[in-house]
Design a protein that fits this description.
Pdz3 Domain; 22% helix; 494 residues; alpha+beta
Amino acid sequence: MNPIKLSISLCIFLAFSTQAFAQKANVKLEAIPSKPSVMNGFADIVEELLPAVVNISTTQEVQNANNSVDQSLLGDLPKSPILEDFRSQLENQFRGQQNTRKKVASIGSGFLISKDGFIVTIFHVVEDASEITVSLSDGAKYKAKVIGVDKKTDLALLKINPEKELKFVKFGDSDKSRIGDWAIIIGNPYGLGGSVSVGIVSARSRDINNNQSDDFIQTDAAINKGNSGGPMFNVRGEVIGINTAIYSPSGGSIGIGFARTSATATQVIRQLKEQGEVTRGWLGISVQDVSEEIAESMKIEKNRGAFVTEVTKDGPAEKGGIIPTDVIIKLDEQEISEMKILPRTVSKFPVGKSVKVTLLRRGKLKYLTVKVGKMRDEDIKKAEIKPVEKRVLVKPAVQIMGLGLLEINDRIRKSKNLDNNLEGLLVAEITPKSEAAEKGIIQGDIILSANQTPVGSVDELKQKIEDSRKTTNKKLFLFLKRNEANYPVVLTVK
């Protein structure tokens, strides 16, 4: 038989066999549903959006850097009568440049959010600006004034006084944006106003500044210098992000750009418009992620929540009953699956609101109510773990797990300038190459608790070690104090 005819017959046979099998097995054969096709270009939507995007140019006065002539040249000149006139000219030039200021120009982008001229941009675009000029797509130029700025989110609200009603855009819900959605960027890169680039949402919830409140959209759409402050649109023409930063070794776009989410921006801009400043909720705690080691030692089923390292004295959390080593897993109805969700959630609560806090303490659920306070500038500062003086006060009473420990008494409190009510064990010595040393414990640290139970004596610590030895994981969870900061360490009991 002809090979071609054989192949055709075989295919027909297989097709009928498959259909017969499906019918016999009562299986319904369906084609994979087709996906909606991508529209042919973005021209129509961009045409509508362009009038609402503005170019921003600013002028700043900066101190003259005196770099037109290297002053070190004076010291290098040989001392010769022939060069005295030249030396005098250089000295006069340096004196003339001292204490002078020069004007420096910079560019950025922004977008209109109202017909009467309110404009959103990024704070670093207008920082220290002595003059701000806004250029519209029709060529009109206006002087702008700053209504308010928020350094924490790097956002700013400007206002111009237009001669007519202006086209403006609205914020969308960035929380509904998905990885793979279209992202349209319009802005003023390198002064080329009205430039459009298109890409996708590459990632969500990016943390680019090691800030607990960081929440950025990542995109591969081209973002360059001058795009800062410009909008990121979805295909419905809604602003889902404000272009903030790029990752680039060269300074130009390599397809990794970041935008502040509209979910964050809408709250900030509303407050700037209404009151000229941003008021944030505050609990008065410092938190960190719950590591696998901490979760295992605390017998938490999975790595979730925010581990409380510090509680501000007389702050909302302390008044509500939260203590260090608590693990917060829920605020009202918001699950705290990771540490960074907690400060974002708290900052959204209005000051004075009573919030239900669900936490884990010594392996058991506990429910508290905390009244949200107002965050101050000094509350934003992070505590640093600084090195302490490595001086042995007296010979340690006992060596435990590589640690030479002293029970804290009045004499130690006075010499170390400690709080009169502080209880714990002072690390006076540490054995090199011990697990404790490898985990970062140093001389001068103070053990506050073991397995979430305060320890004020060596005997209490020994009892906790024995308790840990009887468990399956044999982990001892220590909570220590170093200067003004607290931190956890997990050691293995042998």
